[in-house]
Design brief:
The chain is an alpha+beta fold. It has one domain. It has 3 helices and 7 strands; from the N terminus they run αββββαββαβ. β3 and β4 form a beta hairpin. It is globular.
Length: 127
């Protein structure tokens, strides 16, 4: 039942909101890509304005301004601190790919992170 409710809320958010993240200070707008048949609860497919397809996971990578901030981020945004990658680079788990986009946007806009973006998933292609 919880999955159904979260799915419905996510679908309504997709239809009502525009999603974006920041890359090197530039706002990158993405739109949901519903033609992908491989969508799961853990990942979601989007198309950037430049036409490139991306897959967003439920995780966020963030370079925080304060090394002691992961616990503050957990409490403030209701996410899970997973791992310290470097002294200032941290990995967080959210409930959905759309929440990962929102968290990354909020961390940058509220100046809590130098950069933050969803953990993108990319297929490795052979040459």
């Amino acid at each position: 039942m919880k999955f159904l409710i979260v799915s419905c809320i996510s679908l309504l958010n997709l239809l009502a909101n525009s999603y974006f993240y920041y890359h090197k200070g530039e706002k990158i707008v993405v739109t949901p890509s519903f033609q992908e048949a491989t969508r799961s609860a853990d990942t979601m497919h989007f198309t950037r304005e430049d036409g490139k397809n991306i897959t967003v996971s439920q995780r966020v990578i963030a370079k925080l301004r304060e090394a002691s901030a992961p616990q503050k981020i957990e409490k403030k945004y209701g996410v899970i601190f997973l791992e310290k990658l470097t002294p200032t680079l941290f990995l967080f788990q959210t409930d959905s790919p759309t929440q990962a986009l929102e968290l990354s946007k909020d961390l940058v806009e509220h100046k809590e992170a130098e950069f933050a973006h969803p953990d993108f998933i990319q297929k490795i292609q052979r040459r």
